[in-house]
Amino acid sequence: MPAAAGEELTEGASLLAIRCLELAERELMRCLARQGESGGALRRYRELRSLLAAELGAVPSCETTLLYERIRRGDDV
After folding, report:
1. What pLDDT score was predicted for residue 23?
2. Residue 60 structural domain
3. Nearest-CA neighbor of 19 among 59, 66, 67?
4. What is the pLDDT of residue 7?
5. Rounded to whole angstroms, what are the CA distances from 46 to 5, 24, 29, 69, 75?
């Protein structure tokens, strides 16, 4: 396998791992908010946002950001 192809696979695997992490973090945020720990849920979002920026130069998905906004407003999640 050419080196470039190997790098693409590694990059793709890293992206998949980060997106799976984002899904898990979103569920954790939801659980924390439902238990009355909205501050913890908001903190998890900020930490995820920092990780995505540092590792991929990316931002959280729209779904994760919408959940963050709902929690911040005190809406039911």
Report:
1. 96
2. 3-73
3. 59
4. 65
5. 33, 14, 11, 12, 18
pLDDT digit string (tens) for 38-48? 999 999 999 99
Alpha helices in the chain (DSSP H): 3-34, 38-56, 62-73
Q: What is the spatial distance between Cα 22 and Cα 16, in angstroms, rounded to a whole number?
A: 10
Domain count of the chain?
1
- Cβ pair 24, 66 in contact under 8 A: no
Residue whose tokens read 């908001």: 42
Among candidates 35, 56, 53, 40, which has minimal Cα distance to 68? 40
AA letter at 31: C
Q: What pLDDT digit, counting tens, does each position of 23-36 carry?
A: 999 999 999 999 99
Structure tokens at 20: 């799976």
**Sequence letter at residue 73:** R
